[in-house]
């Protein structure tokens, strides 16, 4: 595709074999000079001269290896909320703007978290296992009303989770960079530094459900290790819908086996797909999801819509939405 406008940018769409749905909306966009589709292997040839990159391959690190070919890149848009795979020194130190797809996943992820809380409280996953074994086993279940939840991460996803859990009757507290009271969604936000007094480590001792919804940064990598897991109640459950490396999986497996905590529901893992050799597959206290907590019918169309909205803004010279603070590794709250 070509255009008479010499200022029109060339766009590269980095994909993993599956291109965006309804791609004609991109291919025939009147403001683009050219659209190039590239896999990780093709990216070095596609990047020269391109000013815009849409990272559709959700967890690729291909741009790191091809960065020396990005001679004109001005804007990188990620079809994800987390952008940890893009926070390598070359891009961080460059003038290129990075945006993400905030606004697509918040509600679906919050619904998944509520479903996992209910599954633990009502032992729905256990009932399914018993059904498959043709076993009739009566037992009592738990209430969720009045139980406590600590949501680690106070961005839009964490806030959506907090609002839904509060609506279901749980008492919710947040953990984030800045401790405060009077927050509209969390009420109280404690500090996320496990070494700080009165912060996350202390709050975990009162928490029934710890929900990880924070971005993966240097500060959160390995946050839930053996020390922090030991601060949780033996009846508590951990839910991770953020990034796998925030939880030290070996320490979590040990905590589940030794009864340090009562259960864990994980949508994300250090290695994905989760290796067949992982003990998490077979631990009865664990629920394993294949990184799908935010993926609902129509989500890919929504991702395209968010990108095109920002593309139109850029072509009109307007401020982009969802601009990532590259020093922090996420879109600042607010």
Walkthrough of the structure:
By secondary structure, this protein is α/β, with parallel strands linked by helices. It contains eleven helices and 13 strands. It has helices at residues 24-27, 43-46, 62-66, 89-92, 106-122, 124-132, 156-167, 200-204, 226-229, 249-258, 299-315, and strands spanning 10-14, 34-38, 52-55, 75-78, 97-99, 148-152, 171-176, 180-183, 187-191, 209-212, 237-240, 263-266, 286-288. The strands form two sheets. It has an eight-stranded mixed sheet. A five-stranded parallel sheet has the order 2-1-3-4-5. The longest helix is centred in the middle third of the chain and has 17 residues, at 106-122. The radius of gyration is 22 Å and the shape is globular. It starts with 9 loop residues before the first strand and ends in a 19-residue tail after the last helix. The relative contact order is 0.13. The mean pLDDT is 96.
Could you list some keywords that capture this structure?
13 strands, globular, alpha/beta, eight-stranded mixed beta sheet, 11 helices, 334 residues, five-stranded parallel beta sheet
């Amino acid at each position: 595709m070509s255009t008479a406008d010499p200022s029109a940018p060339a766009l590269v769409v980095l994909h993993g074999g599956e291109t965006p749905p309804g791609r004609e909306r991109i291919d025939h966009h009147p403001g683009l000079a050219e659209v190039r589709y590239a896999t990780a292997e093709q990216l070095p040839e596609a990047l020269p001269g391109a000013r815009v990159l849409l990272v559709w391959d959700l967890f690729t690190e291909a741009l790191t290896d091809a960065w020396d070919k990005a001679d004109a890149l001005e804007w990188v848009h990620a079809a994800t909320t987390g952008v940890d795979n893009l926070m390598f020194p070359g891009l961080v130190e460059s003038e290129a703007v990075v945006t993400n797809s905030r606004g697509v996943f918040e509600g679906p992820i919050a619904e998944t978290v509520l479903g996992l809380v209910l599954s633990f409280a009502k032992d729905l996953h256990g009932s399914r296992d018993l059904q498959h074994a043709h076993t009739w086993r009566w037992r009592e279940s738990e209430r969720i009303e009045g139980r406590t939840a600590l949501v680690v991460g106070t961005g839009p996803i964490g806030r959506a989770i907090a609002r839904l859990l509060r609506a279901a009757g749980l008492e919710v507290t947040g953990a984030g960079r800045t401790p405060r009271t009077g927050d509209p969604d969390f009420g109280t936000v404690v500090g996320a530094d496990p070494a700080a007094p009165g912060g996350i480590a202390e709050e975990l001792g009162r928490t029934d459900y710890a929900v990880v919804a924070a971005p993966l940064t240097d500060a959160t990598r390995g946050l839930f290790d053996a020390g922090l897991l030991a601060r949780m109640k033996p009846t508590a459950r951990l839910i991770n819908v953020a990034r796998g490396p925030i939880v030290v999986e070996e320490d979590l497996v040990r905590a589940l086996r030794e009864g340090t905590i009562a259960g864990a529901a994980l949508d994300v893992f250090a290695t994905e797909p989760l290796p067949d050799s992982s003990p998490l597959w077979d631990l009865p206290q664990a629920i394993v999801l294949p990184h799908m907590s935010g993926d609902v019918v129509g989500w890919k169309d929504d991702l395209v819509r968010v990108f095109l909205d920002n593309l139109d803004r850029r072509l009109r010279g307007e401020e982009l939405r969802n601009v990532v603070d590259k020093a922090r590794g996420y879109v600042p709250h607010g």
